[in-house]
Amino acid sequence: MTPDAPIVKELLFIGGGHAHALVLRRWGMRPVPGVRLTLVNPGATAPYTGMLPGHVAGHYGRDALEMDLVQLARFAGARFVEGRAVALDRAARRVTLASGRSLAYDLLSLDIGITSEMPSLPGFAAHGVAAKPLGRFADLWSAVTAGEGAISVAVLGGGVAGAELAMAVAHRLDAIGRPREVALIDRGAILSRVAPAARRHIMAALSRWRVVLVENDMPVEVTAQEVILQSGRRVAADLTIGAAGAVPQPWVAETGLETLDGYVVTDRYLRSVTDPAVYAVGDCAHFAPDPRPKAGVYAVRAAPVLAQNLAADLTGRQRRPFRPQRDFLKLISLGGKRAVAEKGGLAFEGALAWRWKDRIDARFMERFRDLPEMQAPPVPKNAAQGVAAELAGPAPCGGCGAKLGSGALAGVISGLPGAVREDAEQLPGDDAAVLSFGTARQVISTDHLRAFALDPALVARVAAVHALGDVWAMGATPQSALATVILPRMAARLQGRWLDEVMGAAAEVFAAEGAAVLGGHSSMGLELTVGFAVTGLLDGPPVTLAGAEPGDALLLTKALGSGVILAAEMRGKARGADVLACWEAMSRPQGDAARLLAPVAHAMTDVTGFGLAGHLWNICGASGVGAEVALGDLPVLSGAETLAARGIRSTLYGQNRAALEHVAEAPGTPRGDLVFDPQTAGGLLASVPDAEAAALVNRLRDAGFPAARVGTVTDTPARIVFT
Q: What are the structural domains, with CATH classification, of the chain?
């Protein structure tokens, strides 16, 4: 998405298959201005299936065959939405996800692959595992290879995929010295659709690996120890792998699109023959002009045509027909580092063929790892002195919501003119205010976030959690919220869609806490910004920063590291799985934690832009105490410490550290740096009686929070020591 062009079109990708991945890479280098591109996928990565047998055989680690879709989406300027599509409303042009969320589109492209799940085979769901999708299978295979003792494995499906997996399984189990039996089962003849020259090589390899071949016999049930066949034969199987009967995802047949055996029927431009606003590529599509077998090579070849045709529809140019090749080179792995190469009925086998395959696979995956670096914006002509230096530095990152440092804020509020009111309490250092109405007391606070991600709903949910932090930290019950939303410039027809996403996601957070959303204001600007003014009701005195006592335990309810992860994500440097875990952590409300802590806490705050060290210092300063924190006890988000070790920092990190250089002593280690990392929607930091700390931590963990005791309040004022 080009931010300086008004958004006028919505392009929605469902699935992170090979074709979509290649189009995303191309889009990042040549976007269509004015289009918001969205990628929906069930997880942060998508596997390159050509390397799956090599992974099973132990030749490649799991990372080697996974494309990081979160990184790729950021490179393309596309928003990433984690989810699985379950329905399509073509009249409304909306796709519904399993979560219930609905996404609108002007153009839709499907690249969702197929699945080898076997729901109709009794016992398979409970005792078997499909080779596709990769996630569960890869996790289970990792556990198998870490185990001990003899094991029997049955692979269902005697095509090329099943044969490759059977040989890879045999190779890996032999390599780790685990006694095994491997069987390859098919309802028909093994490798019946493979060219005779290649089939001879593969059958010989199966024999060398002592794979038991079971042909012309259909599985009728899978149990925990065996596969029962139609003939009555029982094949021992501690692990049953499904590699046969790969089928389309069932919801596709319910879309109203013309399908053939569940596959979307497409025309020569890769569009649905039913609806020209819907494209389909890869294994989920049936290319009607020239039907081809299901093979990744066709998805790869279709990618540039898909990219051109989507751009043509968005800009009014001419589409290009897809012309798949009649034949292609097939490289079939044989368990060890040997392969068969076949094309045009000719085949040869050997280590050279495997090296050829390995090189092709590595070159394909390198396209998604060698993404160009984002360039700094050019310096305007005749710019004032200092502009070049500001542009050369890192752009304001989402890791701190682009907030100002404490130095810019110090003394501002205290120096402002204003009436002194008995019903408005000024509390030492707290971000929220307390208003009195007779015997009732109300907390009021406000906060906003510059978009740290390209998904408005995610930003809104996190902004709501972030804004409620001060209410929870004071022990108040959330009461109401008013929204302030700045949308990027866009067509009028899209404004309602975006506001629906923003307010719908935020309303879920507030409703769960019993707070009413009363309204707000919206406007347009350069980028998405979401904020809320919130109120809460107090049943008793507020929990403030003042009140921490020497000997108190310091408890933290969320893991640290959101700042460095978000800063790295903006630069395409963070692992997608770590980013999704970070987004999930930031989206987690803290109401349940506050209700456990507030009745016993002597002091409490939420950890946000000033980092753990800065917010702990606020408690120490207001309470006249010091603190010791054990770095090893800090909960840390996955990937954060590794990124800090690589020197990646949020833009507010330097100011946070400099502001405390005379009062906070922390080692110059990656974990030590994380105490100055600005947090978005961070956890609660509470000073509680030492005797109650252990029970509180257990109760917080039972409630699903990664809580920990991280330190102790000391009687040495104006000093924080991180050990």
A: 9-113+248-325 (3.50.50.60), 115-244+329-371 (3.50.50.60), 431-543 (3.30.1330.10), 544-723 (3.90.650.10)
Question: How many residues are present in the chain?
Answer: 723
Choose the catalytic residue: 284, 400, 582, 620: 400
Q: What are the residues whose beta carbons fall under 8 Å from the beta carbon of 494, sequence distance 6 or more?
A: 7, 8, 10
pLDDT above 50 for 2: no
Q: To the nearest whole percent, how much of the chain has pLDDT over 90? A: 79
Q: What is the pLDDT of residues 177-201, one digit of tens each?
A: 999 999 999 999 999 989 999 999 9
In 458-578, DSSP assigns E strands to 477-488, 516-525, 529-538, 553-556
Whether 284 is catalytic: no
- 3-class secondary structure per residue, 214-234: ECCCCEEEECCCEEEECCCCE
**Letter string b/e over residues 29-42, b meaning 16 or more CB atoms within 10 A of that residue's CB:** eebbebbbbbbbbb
At 484, the amino acid letter reads T
Q: Please, which residues have CB within 8 angstroms of residue 38's CB and are 6 or more apart in sequence?
A: 10, 11, 12, 13, 78, 79, 80, 81, 103, 105, 455
Distance of alpha carbon 41 from the chain centroid: 9
Which ranges of 222-327 does DSSP label H, i.e. alpha helix? 296-315
